[in-house]
Amino acid sequence: MNPKKLTGEKAAEFISDGMIIGLGTGSTAYYAIKKVGEMVRDGLNVKAVPTSKETAELALEEGIELIELSQVEKLDLTIDGADEVDPDFNLIKGGGGALLREKIVAAATEKLIIIVDESKLVDKLGDFLLPVEVTPFSWQYTQKMINKMGGSSEIRKKDGEIFVTDNDNYILDCDFGKIEKPEKLTIDLNTIPGVVENGIFAKMAEVVVVGHNDGKIEV
Ligand code: 5RP
C-alpha cells in the first residue's frame, strides 16, 4: 500500500469535531486532505487554513470550509509533509515551493503533524537542497549574501522559467552540505536582506507519522 496515503489517513485520525486545522501542501498532504474531505462528507465539522493556492483548490473541491488565519487566534493542528526529517524532528520543507505559508501556518498551530514516507528520514538535514524564498528585487544580491554564508545556490526554475511562489517571490535552492546547527542557520538566513523565509522548520513538529514501504506506520 502507498505509504504516503497511509500516513495522510493516519494523521487525519488526530482531527476531532469543531477543530480549526491547517492543511499542508504536496503529494503526501494530498492524501490527508482527501481523507478530511471524506470525513467532512460524513458529518465532521472543521474549518481549515490552506498553505497554498493548490491546497485551497483541492480543499474546496473536497467540500472543506476554508478560513483566513487572521480570523482565528490559533489552529488546533496542522498536517503537512516534509522533504527531510532528522531525529530531533527538525525539517526541511519547501520542495513544493509553499514554505512561507507553511511556516506561518505551522507557527500558528498548537500541534504540527508531519507525514512522510521512510525515504524522508535522515540523520542530519542537508542532502535535500534547502529552499529559501527571496524577493525578486535584486535576488542576485541576496544570493551572493547567502553564498557568503558558506552555501551555494541555484534559482529554482520550472519549464525553463524562474519559478514564482504563491507570494510572487522566487526560490533559491541552497546547498550548505550537512546542516550541523539548523536553528542557527534558520536565524542567520532570515537576517539577510531579501530573504523572506527559509525551509528549515527547527523543532516545530510535534508528531511525525512515518509510512514504511512494507505498509507499517510509525507515529
Ligand atoms: C511543499 C512542502 C512539502 O510538504 C514537501 O515538499 C513534501 O512534499 P511531498 O509530500 O510531495 O514529498 O514543503 O512546500
From TrEMBL:
<dbReference type="GO" id="GO:0006014">
    <property type="term" value="P:D-ribose metabolic process"/>
</dbReference>
<dbReference type="InterPro" id="IPR020672">
    <property type="entry name" value="Ribose5P_isomerase_typA_subgr"/>
</dbReference>
<feature type="binding site">
    <location>
        <begin position="25"/>
        <end position="28"/>
    </location>
    <ligand>
        <name>substrate</name>
    </ligand>
</feature>
<feature type="binding site">
    <location>
        <begin position="80"/>
        <end position="83"/>
    </location>
    <ligand>
        <name>substrate</name>
    </ligand>
</feature>
<feature type="active site" description="Proton acceptor">
    <location>
        <position position="102"/>
    </location>
</feature>
<dbReference type="InterPro" id="IPR004788">
    <property type="entry name" value="Ribose5P_isomerase_type_A"/>
</dbReference>
<keyword id="KW-0413">Isomerase</keyword>
<dbReference type="GO" id="GO:0005829">
    <property type="term" value="C:cytosol"/>
</dbReference>
<dbReference type="GO" id="GO:0009052">
    <property type="term" value="P:pentose-phosphate shunt, non-oxidative branch"/>
</dbReference>
<feature type="binding site">
    <location>
        <position position="120"/>
    </location>
    <ligand>
        <name>substrate</name>
    </ligand>
</feature>
<comment type="similarity">
    <text>Belongs to the ribose 5-phosphate isomerase family.</text>
</comment>
<dbReference type="GO" id="GO:0004751">
    <property type="term" value="F:ribose-5-phosphate isomerase activity"/>
</dbReference>
<feature type="binding site">
    <location>
        <begin position="93"/>
        <end position="96"/>
    </location>
    <ligand>
        <name>substrate</name>
    </ligand>
</feature>
<comment type="subunit">
    <text>Homodimer.</text>
</comment>
<protein>
    <recommendedName>
        <fullName>Ribose-5-phosphate isomerase A</fullName>
        <ecNumber>5.3.1.6</ecNumber>
    </recommendedName>
</protein>
<comment type="function">
    <text>Catalyzes the reversible conversion of ribose-5-phosphate to ribulose 5-phosphate.</text>
</comment>
<dbReference type="Pfam" id="PF06026">
    <property type="entry name" value="Rib_5-P_isom_A"/>
</dbReference>
<comment type="pathway">
    <text>Carbohydrate degradation; pentose phosphate pathway; D-ribose 5-phosphate from D-ribulose 5-phosphate (non-oxidative stage): step 1/1.</text>
</comment>
<dbReference type="InterPro" id="IPR037171">
    <property type="entry name" value="NagB/RpiA_transferase-like"/>
</dbReference>
